[in-house]
Amino acid sequence: MQEYRFSMEKVLDWREDLEDVAQLMVKEKIEKVKNENDKLNRIISESRKLKSEQLFHSTIDHLKRHHLYRDLIDEKIIRQRLTVQKADKELEQARIELQVAHKDKKVMQKLEEKERTRHQDTVKKQEQTQLDEISTLSFGRPSIY
Length: 145
Prior knowledge:
Layout: H1 9-51, H2 60-140
Helix pairs in contact: 1-2
């Protein structure tokens, strides 16, 4: 009998490739979120360290510079938090795209499964028909013994 071949094999392969790309994108976004959070934590720890410094024996000029630097660090923290939020949104979008790609691939796999089952049923019917013909022919023949 003929070997089974899924009629939409190329579409299934393409959807599997799309899913692989989506998985890589999710991994990249997870790494980006992690890096941005690490960066935020470093800035926050620097801010804490700066705020806990002893400035009792400093000049007024030094205190002004210290205050300006603290304000700068606070602005960096705000900007970094916004960057982290943006990275989180990008990660969520990538996960949604991965879910869609996974669903599309599953649809094609179910279609392949149904087509394979239909093909197997057709092959079994053909084999049964051949066996029936052989039985009919051998029944109608006179026995030699």
